[in-house]
Amino acid sequence: MSIDRAGVGYALTGASTGLVGATSSAFNITPSTGTKLVFTVQPTSTTAGATITPAVQATAQDALGNTVTTFNGPVTVAIGNNPGAGTLAGTATVNAASGVATFADLSIDRVGTGYTVTASATAFTTASSTAFNITPGAATQLVFTTQPTTTTGGAAITPAVQVTARDAQGNTASGFTGP
Predict the structure, then answer these.
(1) Pick from 24, 29, 28: which is nearest to 11 by CA?
(2) Which pTM value belongs to this model?
(3) Whole-angstrom distance, CA of residue 142 vs CA of residue 99
């Protein structure tokens, strides 16, 4: 007989036809040694440079999926898949509290579809998050992306001058529709 879920106050009962049943005294099941990290709060799609909310959480678990509440060591996150060549900002290493590491101020500066982050800690299998997207922010600046060239008076400037709206992180603000 075994119980695979950690918990407090388990009790067993025994019964048989014609006999008075019995109930054991309460007992606890504790997690075994931690073996892996899992994302219990996945990163969500957000705007470039904005804090990812809700806060990302990585949890230390044993082989049966129980949270290892005695683990209080450092956990580090990093960008895994990096489709936009972004940079991760915020506190990338935090100490777990009762087996859970919370990353409250993470952000990525570049637009991209399909980012992932990884979580690692000594003696634990590394976790990889589900994919999420970073979208451009609101336009905050205009940038000449094709500069004017010297030309003869009255002739069209070629190539055509081009101005691009960009967000505070330098990404093209694709939602900008102003003049």
Answers:
(1) 24
(2) 0.81
(3) 46
